[in-house]
Amino acid sequence: MDKKLNRIKVILADRGLTNKWLAETIHRDPATISKWVTNATQPPLETLIEIALALNVGIEELVRMPEEQCLRKNVNTET
After folding, report:
1. Per-position pLDDT tens, the chain of length 79
2. How many CB atoms within 10 Å of residue 75?
3. 2 secondary structure, DSSP code
4. DSSP three-state, residue 7
5. Which of 1, 13, 17, 18 stands 20 to 30 A from 30 (CA)?
6. Residues contacting 12, CB < 8 A, separation 6+
């Protein structure tokens, strides 16, 4: 399974924002933010909501569905 479940790093880069900015905005340790943006660990759902609000994006933009799940969904919707 692909371990890259979130797109936090991509969205930060697209907006020209840093891990440090996110850490200060949502009051988390920069080391924790680093683990999330590298997908070493995943933030809890409540924190993911905080991140989405800070970045002004929908939570669905932060989450990457594993490829095999996408394939199953496409197969299920075609029947």
Report:
1. 456 789 999 999 999 999 999 999 999 999 999 999 999 999 999 999 999 999 999 999 999 766 655 555 555 555 4
2. 9
3. -
4. coil
5. 1
6. 18, 19, 21, 22, 37, 55
* Residue 68 tokens, joined: 């095999």
What whole-number distance in Å separates Cα of residue 21 and Cα of residue 10?
Answer: 14
Place of tokens 């759902």: 45
pTM for the predicted model, two decimal places:
0.78
What distance in Å separates the CA atoms of residue 18 and residue 28, rounded to the nearest whole number? Answer: 13
Q: What is the DSSP string of 27-59?
A: T--HHHHHHHHTTSS---HHHHHHHHHHHT--H
